[in-house]
Amino acid sequence: MLKKTEEWTIPASGKATFRILLAPTGEVQPGKYNGRLIFSTRNGVDLVGASVNLELEVFQPRLIFSPSSIDLGSPATCRQWKAEFPLMVESSSRKVETVSFSLDAANLLLQPTSFEVSPGKQEITFGITPTQKLAAGAYELMMAISTRQGVEISPADEISLQFTYPPFWSRCRTPLTWGGASLLLIAIVVAWGMRRLWKITAQPLVTGTLQHWPVGRRSESQDFDLTALKKSSVTIGRGSDCDLSLSDPTLEMKHALLKAESEVDKIQIVLMPLEGVRIGYRPLTGATPLAHQDIFTMGEREFQYLSDTGE
Questions:
Q1: Do 95 and 137 belong together in one domain?
Q2: Residues 108, 150: one domain?
Q3: Looking at the structure, do residues 96 and 135 belong to the same domain, yes or no?
């Protein structure tokens, strides 16, 4: 299996140091080997230590990849899908080895396609991107691994990759759902804004009930429904054109006016005297907001305002 590659000459009465190169004569499998190195010379020369025992190991670098099978899952969005996955490699080589990778799929782009593997353990991150539209379904492909001759790839020179590419509606279900919810929310906000604007710009209406009776005769009280009129102002007097017309000679033709005014968060009913109006013994000289159950007097008639909400 091994052969001598050189002959040497030893000077007379001297010493010499030689380097011996052992080379295989054929294919040698990795492993440990034992042998003897035997020296010979011409007849008549005594050789002391004419043989030397040899022990040697034929070493083959190895690259170990893991895992051997990878599930890439499936895309969950409408955007262009790119699958990324890590691959561990352990190198027993004493130098940097160049390793190449390839996929058995023409419509998928693998990156990187080569990598410099240093001695020891390290992680390689790969990315796979479709180069054209993929049909929905389950995919299984192989990623081939190759390197220089004499380096072993373990446990195999292929890595199995699997992924599922769902239909469009399945991939885009969540974005479409969120999109629909967003449109609904926008519609609600717009409707609320328009209603708010309408409330601000629309003329408010007088609401509630106005009770009235002759002074001192509460038992003769009558109710007048202000809400049913659906008007922004209500006139009170003995004139026939008043909204609340009372045949009371102590009242003027148009004695007072009830008006609705918009405030920040409510509608305020305001009493606006056109002639003499009193609350208790205090005469009113200007517009006065009315609260629930407020009582006021006009002529010889008393009035009490009751709001629809009781507040």
A1: yes
A2: yes
A3: yes
Q: Is 110 a domain residue?
A: yes
Instruction: Tell which of 58, 77, 97 closes a domain.
Output: 58
What tokens were used for 35?
């042998």
Residue whose tokens read 């109006």? 277
Residue 147 in domain? yes
In a domain, 180, yes or no: no
**Residue 195: which H helix or E strand, with range?**
helix 173-201
Q: Is residue 187 part of a domain?
A: no
Biggest CA pair distance of the chain: 168
- Its domain, for residue 151, covers 62-170
- DSSP string across 47-65: PTT-EEEEEEEE---EEEE
pLDDT digits (tens, 9 = 90+) for 102-147: 999 888 999 999 999 999 999 999 999 988 888 888 999 999 999 9
d(CA 205, CA 91): 87
The number of domains in the chain is 3
Is the pTM of the predicted complex or chain greater than 0.70?
no
> Do residues 272 and 287 touch, judged by C-beta distance below 8 A?
yes
**Which string of DSSP letters, residue by residue, matches 5-44?**
-----PPTT---------EESS---SEEEEEEEE----TT
Nearest to 168 by CA among 139, 137, 141: 137
pLDDT tens digits along 160-170 = 999 988 877 76
Residue whose entry in the numeric block shows the structure tokens 């390793």: 99
Q: How many CA atoms lie within 13 A of 49 on its CB side?
A: 2
208: exposed, middle or buried (Cβ count in 10 Å: 0-12, 13-18, 19+): buried
Distance CA 61, CA 67 (A): 19
Local structure of residue 166 (DSSP, 8 states) = -
CA distance 153 to 31: 17
Neighbours of 159 (CB within 10 A): 21
| C-alpha span between 109 and 38 (Å, rounded) | 59
